[in-house]
Amino acid sequence: MVLATSAFFGLKLDLRAQETLCDDICDRLKNRPQDGCFRHQCLNAVKLPQAQKHAELYHALQNADCLSPDGMGIVWAARLIGIPVGQRVTGIDLMTALLPRFAKSGVRVFLLGAKLDVVDTLQKKLPIRYPGLVIAGAHHGYELDDDKLAAVIRESGADALFVALPSPRKELFVDTIAPKTGCRFAMGVGGAFDVLAGEVHRAPVPWQKCGLEFLWRILCQPRRMMPRYARGLVRFTKLTVPVIFRYQAKRLAKRTAVVLMLGGVLGAVMNSSDGNSVWAATFDPPDLSDPQAAENWIKDRMVQVTTRDDLSQTIDDIVSWVLPAEVSRENAPDGAENPIDWDGVDVSIKALLTVFQTVLKVSGANSFLIEAVIGGVIGRLLDLHPDPDRVARLITITAPNLANAIFGNRQVALFDADRTLPVWGANLSNVSVISHQTAPPEKDRFVQPFLYWIEPNTEDFKSEASSWGGSESEESAFDFVSEDASPR
Known about the structure:
Strand order of the largest sheet: 4-3-8-7-5-6
Organism: Thalassospira lucentensis
Number of helices: 19
Pfam family, one: Glyco_tran_WecG
Strand content: 5-15%
Number of strands: 11
Shape: elongated
Protein name: Glycosyltransferase
Radius of gyration: 41 Å
Number of domains: 2
Region (Disordered): 461-488
Keywords: Glycosyltransferase, Transferase
């Protein structure tokens, strides 16, 4: 038997649909006679507050093998606190669904409760309505000694017991006495005997579907049912409404938090579209003299890159890390007219290249994104520097493995589809550029890169004096591992 339950005010509310529950009960009776008595109880809006006040009733419901939602009040309350109750399972509906199955499988039935004339009528009607049904015995239930009733049921040899005693005696009998009867299935059915015998008319189906069956019973028996339902429903409301309110308030708070978060993200995106980027506002890189801090900063930025705009902004920020603010993004400066300390800039570029080489070595699966940033930064530096040859040679001497990746038989992405290849003029006499378009890999669809090779001519480079001092060969602490790079 497959169990599907959920906690409901301390009780295990069964979530199985009626047909599934019938199948499980019949399977148990047929294939597992050694499992003892299966006790089924029903829960409605009147019974729940009663159980909260009376410990014995609460224990009986808690101890049930199956506790089904009998009333629509229970179904609605459960749904409002997040329990996925599909449908209610009333005592009378479950009983009438089980009887034809019992008739077919030969399960012997005992009827307990209601008035004597009602029980006699039911004993005659049920075998006619369900051919083959065996009524092992019946009793009106006005005997106060439960042990005597248990003996009568046990002597009948019944397999299934339907109890129509008043509540809470009905629930207590099913919980404690039914296992002594020898029956392997017992359930309380409330006023089902009166309805099946024709003594009481059940509410029309539309009323049942709307959850107004209690109102029908009040109209049919106002003097008896009005006080019962008035007290019960008021108590039920007091018990469930605070819990429902707290659950819905938490749910609303979560949704509000999500909406606010999405609104913040949307606002950030809209602000970044007019040049006031959130990235730019939070740009605060460490000093390049601290390689470890610089490496960690770059890695953190890589984690935040999710769109093409993010990639472009990251490249801009890293370029501004090493170039003075006076350098225009659009036009390379004229060294004669703009008194910029390019020797100091070259020192910063040299430190940045060392950090790049370390980050690229340990990038692993993110190597494609790292190379995208590195390629974009180097392309911008070549654009903006008054002597691109110096930048190319600086790359070769400072980061030989990185230079091999850029200038060797590899492609490097400058990752700006709107960008045109720079015109470097006479300064690029020793550099040849070959350009072609290619499609981006799957994981970087937001980038439409221009890929090109830069093939520097560094012949006699070591003998050439440079503004940053003698050409000192430095070996990287890491070797470039081509297997880590993403295929392009």
